[in-house]
């Protein structure tokens, strides 16, 4: 019966130097955060971004076309293209984190930089259009405010934009006042709501990719890190179990009965039985075939050979 292999020996510092106390290792905050698995974080963020970018893609384009505002429709079409590409990248990241495929995760880690650049560019385009096409925005605001549909465009949703139907004069006054008061917040929002979240998503995607390539990390997807991950998660020793350690295999695999070997008494070797050496017969004529062998006829060839039974009989005569 084969014995199971013992777990690997875990040597501590005090085993080698009992009189010396090891110095405590202080882990940094980033190290503690890095050791955690970021898979669920990447999956949640990628899914949220996919839905958010998908809803923002065609949000304002229909309104601009219905109001026959070609300048704002061109801006909305550009933003729709940007959000569609970013939506595809985030969808790729969500699939990579869900399926845990290294190739998809690696592609998403590099495409996340492109997605961050696109989203930052969308914020810059939105801010630039807010000032460049100010007249078109005010006309659209007045038209939607008189109809009571100001919330149909994403820029005019929420306070301080009016939500109730207004007359033409009141709509012009309030739209102009709100546009002037929101100029500063529009510039700040490009950095807070576009640039900083994009950088955060990009860093999260890259750190998760580093975790999947780190063989000592629990989130590693490398081949040689599977045993280390098993030990880190408390799954057992970092090697495959022997058949004796597996309950099903132990019941099915039965050791074959060992064949009994013929035992010879040590006394039988005391007779001095010699092994006959093989001699090559030499002849005058050479044959193309292999040489012929025969037992040497000279009795002196047997001298000097003797089998022994133990250490006490290991002399050579």
From TrEMBL:
Q: Which domain of life is it from?
A: Eukaryota
The entry's keywords: Membrane, Transmembrane, Transmembrane helix
Transmembrane domains' residue ranges: 40-58, 78-99, 111-133, 187-209
Q: What is this protein called?
A: Transmembrane protein
Species this chain originates from: Mycena maculata
